[in-house]
Design a protein that fits this description.
The protein is 45% helix and 16% strand. The chain is built from 16 helices and 16 strands. It has an 8-stranded mixed β-barrel, surrounded by 5 helices. A hairpin with a 5-residue loop joins strand 1 and strand 2. Helix 11 packs parallel to helix 12 and helix 14 crosses helix 15. The chain is globular and about 110 Å long.
Length: 578
């Protein structure tokens, strides 16, 4: 009897299992049918039967990979890295969910821009450490959450999120600074002593005052320096995340970064920019008395491949070193080579600006290169760092001061003596508007004036061009996003030179990709010493070779704007491109 009672219970158990299994099969059938799995399997099996591939499972993997969901950003991570000067910087890492797996797709960092942190108010004294720490906190925290689920190929959408986030932080920072300034002014007013009574006015004193006023007005006052906008702590995170997302988008699209940027910027055709190579470094950071010329830069002859430009620059470099290591030059001037500069070029100890130019002209002559035809030069004057505001003059050489008007005359004489010079970068402060205009009118189209905007992030609108300025030098620094660079290049075609920074994070060579993708005419990568800079030149060569193999004409047969505009094409012996 006990055994008979067990059978119904056993039958009932089996029946429930069969019913559950049947329902599960129905759910599975509905799930696969709704997602068209049987249909896709039938399609790939039919295709593969006729294709008869050697790698059957590779064929299946490729087929289903095309049907997988598009990758999405799953999170960000931030790390401290060292840049080329051995100081800490920020690197952003992008993780994406790809075919149900989380993968690290890219990492990137951007330089800080001349190491000018411009911290004020509550951040005064905190400097780089606070900047780095805040940037890492942003990347790992709020930015990671905000970008989760975003399409890494949607650069505009990602950069808009970054812009909104930074705008909010910027307003918070401005409000904090305002409150700090009000508190500071209030404390100063409470501590201030009452002013002393004015002295009695006599006729003799009045005449003395009048004389002093007359003497003060005899010396023309210079426009005051416009203080730079304080940098928001953590702003490095904006540029680093934006660039890292762009690199992830290129990886997912399976194209090089420059082609991904090219597609985003809607350029019409590929052109490899003309590399501007630093030949000599002198100026204020050098041991000599000369402060004015920070760099002497090679503008190569048009129509050359990057490898040809580098070969020519290396020959000039070797000849310069040979001359500097000898006792004197042909001009009878003592020469002395110093260490390699941050720009990757040999440092020359100069007493006068003519020494550096004489040396380069002599080296080119020894190599059979005709100055003004086969090579031309650009001078990075960096004059905005030389103003002695207590005297209202530029300290062009140690102990030698010149007013802005005297500096105009000095440049005119220098250009008249050295027609090989085709461009002057930052010959004055931006505030000396009259001198920019006067120099431009005096030199005409024989030399281009360029304004260095390296201290300005491209996320800000470029200010109106100064009178006579043909172009602007811009760096990819701080909060500059990829979309900002695209916008700047679109709004200012043939007017921007993209430049590297002396504080680039180690391992980054993507400036070359950015330059090609954005379609800039010129890129300034510095000298030919140091692995960090040579990596950028090597990347530019690789891009040029890749495009040439695809049958794309990449070399520029003319030197375009902003270094050569209008009539000075003819002055340079260059015909316009048809």
């Amino acid at each position: 009897m006990a055994s008979n009672k067990r059978y119904p219970r056993c039958d009932l158990k089996v029946s429930e299992e069969e019913r559950d299994f049947y329902e599960m099969k129905n759910r599975a059938c509905e799930f696969y049918t709704r997602n068209k799995v049987p249909q896709q399997i039938e399609n790939v099996l039919n295709e593969m039967f006729f294709a008869k591939p050697d790698d059957i499972y590779g064929y299946l993997a490729n087929f289903f990979m095309k049907l997988s969901a598009p990758p999405r950003i799953s999170g960000l991570n931030g790390r401290e890295v060292y840049h080329s000067q051995g100081k800490l910087s920020v690197q952003a890492e992008v993780m994406c969910t790809i075919r149900n797996e989380q993968k690290l797709t890219s990492s990137a960092g951007v330089p800080a821009g001349n190491d000018q942190w411009r911290m004020q108010g509550p951040d005064l004294g905190k400097g780089r450490a606070h900047h780095i720490t805040t940037g890492l906190e942003w990347i790992k925290g709020p930015l990671s959450e905000l970008l989760k689920g975003c399409d890494p190929c949607d650069q505009t959408g990602v950069d808009n999120i970054l812009s909104d986030f930074f705008s909010a932080r910027h307003q918070e920072d401005k409000e904090t600074r305002r409150l700090q300034e009000e508190e500071k002014n209030k404390e100063a007013e409470e501590e201030a002593l009452p002013p002393p009574p004015p002295p009695p006015v006599s006729s003799k004193g009045k005449k003395a005052g009048e004389t002093a006023t007359k003497g003060a007005s005899a010396e023309k006052l210079i426009p005051p320096c416009v203080p730079p906008e304080p940098e928001v702590p953590g702003s490095l995170a904006m540029g680093a995340v934006s660039l890292a997302v762009a690199k992830s988008g290129a990886l997912i699209r399976d194209v090089p970064l420059y082609k991904h940027i090219f597609a985003l910027s809607s350029q019409s055709d590929f052109r490899v920019p003309v590399p501007l190579v630093t030949l000599l470094s002198c100026g204020k950071s050098s041991p000599g008395k000369l402060n004015l010329l920070e760099e002497v830069i090679l503008i190569p002859r048009p129509g050359q491949r990057v490898t040809q430009v580098i070969s020519t620059a290396l020959q000039i470099h070797e000849e310069l070193m040979r001359i500097m290591n000898s006792s004197t030059s042909k001009a009878g001037q003592p020469t002395q080579a110093g260490p390699t500069s941050e720009a990757g070029a040999p440092v020359m100890v100069c007493e006068r600006p003519e020494q550096a130019l004489d040396l380069v002209v002599e080296a080119c002559g020894n190599l059979g290169l005709t100055p003004g035809e086969e090579i031309r030069l650009a001078l990075n004057c960096a004059a905005d760092r030389l103003m002695d505001y207590s005297k209202g003059k530029y300290e062009v050489m140690a102990g030698s001061l010149k007013s802005p008007e005297e500096l105009v005359d000095m440049y005119q004489a220098l250009l008249l003596k050295y027609p090989v010079v085709a461009a002057l970068i930052q010959p004055f402060r931006k505030e000396d508007v009259d001198q920019w205009e006067r120099l431009s009118s005096a030199i005409g189209a024989s030399c281009s004036l360029l304004c260095d905007m390296s201290g300005l992030s491209a996320s800000q609108a470029l200010p109106p061009a100064l009178p006579g300025v043909k172009g602007q030098v811009l760096q990819h620094v701080n909060r500059t996003k990829v979309s900002d660079l695209i916008r700047i290049m679109t709004e200012n075609p043939d007017a921007v030179i993209l430049s590297s920074s002396h504080s680039e994070p180690c391992g980054e060579d993507c400036l070359s990709d950015l330059a090609v993708g954005l379609g800039v005419a010129y890129v300034r990568l510095g000298g030919l010493q140091g692995g960090q800079r040579l990596a950028k030149y090597n990347r530019l060569i690789a891009i040029e070779e890749e495009l040439a193999q695809q049958g794309i004409q990449v070399s520029r047969t003319t030197l375009p704007a902003p270094l050569f505009v209008g009539d000075n094409l003819a002055d340079a012996g260059i015909s316009e491109e048809v």
